[in-house]
Amino acid sequence: MAIFTDPIDEYADFGPGDAEWLHLLVGDWQLIADLAFADLALWLPTPDGSYVALAHVRPSTTHTVFHSDFVGERIRADLLPLADAARRSQVIERSSESGWTTEMAMRVEAVPMVRNGRTLAVLTSHMDLSSSRMPSRLELTYRQCAYDLLHMGTLGLWPDFASPTGSRRGAPRVGDGLIRLDADGIVQYASPNGVSAFRRLGDVESLEGRSLAEITTALLKDRRMVDESLPLVVTGRMPWRTEIESRGVTLSLRAIPLRNEHERFGALVLCRDVSELRRREMELVSKDATIREIHHRVKNNLQTVAALLRMQSRRMVSEEAKQGLEQAMRRVATIAMVHETLSQGLAQNVDFDELIGRQFRLSAEVASESQAVTTQRSGEFGELPSEFATPLALVINELVTNAVEHGLKGRKGTVWLTARRDPAGSGKEWLRVTVEDDGVGLPDSPGGDGLGLQIVRTLVTSELGGSIEWRTREGGGTCVNIELNLDPQRLR
């Protein structure tokens, strides 16, 4: 289906809700195309007496008539008189058979879409009759349903603003199953797929001639879980959707009341077996909950490990061993904080600014012994893939700890953390991270053989696929620059 909305703003003189009504029509007219076995086109009148095509939809129940799209084009000369007649009369107009050719026998109908007494647009239905045969009862019923809905369009009764507009997976379509009810909710016709859908719920011999509400009530085993909208849907009184579940089978139902100028004379009920869809959705929900629970438990376990390391460090006599355990404890705590963040959401990306905001200050406070260390952060990391979160948090933790313990050892100072994301063209994006301090500056061999710096180099080059550089900061101190190439595919 294609739609072209600019002419509405350019040509139309619509009142409140008129444009929304046509959008609602285009959003739901696949139903008409499938019932009518026809292509549908929506034409908007123009000031020069012509029409421009707003939208076009093809049926899924038969082959299409128009293989090329004509949305945005002017109406053909042979269709103009028919569209004008429908617009003036505000009733459905049908083309004469004299226009048929040996190559194409086509029935064209022009349907005025009338709201508040004004013809807003004209809908044309194009059905190929060249390969027609004796229509079956299903085809005759489908076409009658299409006519009834189009006739409601000429009265402004369809589409209905109360109709569901959500795109929930499993919304029933014509081919999934159609049931036609009379005004009392008695089944006049049920398509084979409709009958099969209800038979999956239980032992239903036939639907025709019986009340759909009574059939549905008899099939429901657990009536405590019944949707409140179910009675209005199975009687066809309201244009709503609902679902029923029994014996492990879930049916999605949608009702479309049929009305004329005076009363409701029947309804269409579309049904679809969505058992497999709902089962997969439940599996996804269960998997998401499981993943969050795993992150939560990993966080708890890592916090336990950090506590054990802290207890062990207190028993150490050697100062070097005590410092080693404390460093290991801080690294474990950093990883635990990342898992805590991951356990709170279902997205594959992590708001790294929220995560590192706490971690940055904590790393500096824990590493400082008695000196006063100030931390300043600028720029934004943005959302990063979850697989980036742990190694990048560890890298920043190690660099901040190193800046406080070595660069600012025994003195006051400041540690700066800056992040900047820059587009690099060709769909690529760079993340540039800088950690600076105003301490004693670089040693003779920057990026030496310490364990912390070895961890940093390994994580940046291997896990993050980036580069790292140590240099002297302007004004004194050390500056560490990290550049990471963010893959757009991992950020979606």
From TrEMBL:
Protein name as catalogued: histidine kinase
Superkingdom of origin: Bacteria
Broadest EC class assigned to this enzyme: transferase
Pfam families registered for this protein in UniProt: GAF_PdtaS (PF12282), HATPase_c (PF02518), HisKA_2 (PF07568), PAS_4 (PF08448)
Source species of the chain: Arthrobacter crystallopoietes BAB-32
Keyword entries, A-Z: ATP-binding, Kinase, Nucleotide-binding, Phosphoprotein, Transferase, Two-component regulatory system
GO molecular function, one term: ATP binding
Alphabetical GO biological process terms: phosphorelay signal transduction system
Domain Histidine kinase: 293-488
